[in-house]
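Amino acid chain
________________
===
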Amino acid sequence: MISRIEKTVLLVEKALKELIAEGRKVNQYAIEKRAGLSNGALNYNTKAYHKLKDKIRIIKEEAEPKKKNARQTAFDKENLANALRLKEKYYKQKNLYREKLRYSEARRLELQFQLFHIQQYIMHLEEKGYTELNVVSFNINKEKKITYKTNRTFSSYQRT
């Protein structure tokens, strides 16, 4: 024997299939009317009715995508324009910083090259005895690591 709830579920499922086949609007009121039920009959607190209402909601969402009103459409366009403006701004900023980084790296390498030659020149002067300086020498490895050596001498040099 079928319970009253099970009978109602069968009627609702049949009405749902008919509405979908006819291409009509699917909502709780239309299904209840087609099934011969009173308005709000599916609002009773039973698991079977909750499952049916979830099924109706899913079918309704698939059949009718959410429509945007004019205000929301304008808001979306404004957000899109704002996002594009910010994207362009940050793209320009990124390129500016990238260029500054290239310039800074080139400048660093040039200064490092000059420092190396100045130290070589000072060491040459020390070898010839023209000056008495404490030179910090450095070497550049292939991994671009710089190592420093202190060349400390306390004896006096004489010119030759």
